[in-house]
Structure formats: structure tokens, C-alpha cells
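Re: that backbone. C-alpha cells:
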């Protein structure tokens, strides 16, 4: 309750025959230790610690089963890894139509420029799930944009929304899946997409 170490109290409760329930926990379920959500990580650490302490001092040693937790709308955090790769969970309805709903990380671009990434994998939450690069007018859901994406079922797709609030259009090259390099180049108001 006060954020302190409660493993001793937990162990006393488990060892005290007067308070111990008639059942014994053979398996404990906890969020996976690599779950990136802060609350899940804390619960996992506590369960792992309690099981470790209990297994050294109790006859019945519980097995800890880890599971990954994902809630729709609360994807795994953005992570920039030591080797330079980026891991990011997906979220939102789609990048399509007249309005987009998706998870992204961005940097400001003024004038001409390009962005290149290697898409190593795309989890197939949908055949049109997308991972890639995009240049947007702003972060509004209906913003003009151009992007190139790798999908699990529909190849590599160049898509754009030519004016704010307009329908998105796309050109896809079927039969391609991750891993692939994708690049988006802006020269004035002309956007060029490349893949390799």
C-alpha cells in the first residue's frame, strides 16, 4: 500500500497455517516481464519476487506463468532500441478514407527532405495493417499526407490524401512483405516513394 517491499508480509501470510486457505497455488499468472506498460511491469516484478521468495522457503513451489497484455486502444509503448531499431505498437482504426486514426512518432520537416526506414516486420492485425513512413501537413486526423507502407497481405502501398479531408488514394505493388526498405522524398509539393 505504501510502495514498500511487501514480500515478507506476503510470505508470512502464505506460511501461516491459521490464515492460509485450504487451496494451494500451484501456478501464478502475471504479466510477462517484458511487457512495457508500467503497471503491468510492476505487477510482474512483484509476482516474480514473491514467487522467488516463496520457492526458497515453502515446500510447495508455485510456477509463474507470464502473459503479454494488450488492450485495444492502448498499444505497446514506442521504444528506440540500443541497436538503432524502433519498436512501436499499432493502434487506431486505419490510415485511409477522409480521416486517419493510427499511432505514430514524428519529427518536424520544413521544406524538402526524405525519410528512409527498413520495415522488419508488420503484425497482421488486419490485411491492410501498415508500417512505414509518412509526411503529413500536420497532426490533424484529416490532414493532407503521403506515405509508403509495407502491409502483411497487400504488398507495398503508396498512398496519399491530396487535400485535407479528401479521400485517400493508393497504388500498391502486390506480393511484397516485410522486410523491405521504404523511402519517401519531398521536393516542393511533389512526393516520390521508393522501396527496395
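Recovered sequence:
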Amino acid at each position: 500500500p505504501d510502495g514498500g517491499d511487501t514480500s515478507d508480509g506476503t510470505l508470512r501470510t502464505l506460511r501461516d497455517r491459521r490464515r492460509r486457505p485450504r487451496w494451494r497455488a500451484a501456478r501464478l499468472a502475471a504479466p510477462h516481464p517484458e511487457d512495457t506498460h508500467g503497471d503491468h511491469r510492476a505487477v510482474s516484478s512483484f509476482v516474480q519476487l514473491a514467487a522467488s521468495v516463496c520457492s526458497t522457503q515453502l515446500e510447495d513451489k508455485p510456477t509463474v506463468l507470464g502473459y503479454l497484455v494488450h488492450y485495444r486502444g492502448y498499444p505497446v509503448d514506442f521504444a528506440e532500441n540500443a541497436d538503432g531499431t524502433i519498436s512501436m505498437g499499432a493502434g487506431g482504426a486505419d490510415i485511409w478514407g477522409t480521416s486517419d486514426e493510427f499511432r505514430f512518432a514524428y519529427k518536424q520537416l520544413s521544406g524538402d527532405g526524405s525519410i528512409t526506414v527498413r520495415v522488419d516486420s508488420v503484425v497482421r492485425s488486419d490485411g491492410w495493417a501498415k508500417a512505414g513512413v509518412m509526411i503529413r501537413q500536420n497532426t490533424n486526423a484529416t490532414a493532407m499526407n503521403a506515405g509508403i507502407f509495407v502491409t502483411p497481405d497487400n504488398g507495398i502501398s503508396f498512398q496519399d490524401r491530396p487535400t485535407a479531408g479528401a479521400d485517400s488514394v493508393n497504388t500498391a505493388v502486390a506480393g511484397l512483405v516485410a522486410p523491405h526498405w521504404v523511402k519517401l522524398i519531398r521536393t516542393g509539393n511533389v512526393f516520390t516513394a521508393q522501396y527496395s
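The chain has two helices and eleven strands. The first helix runs from residue 7 to 15.
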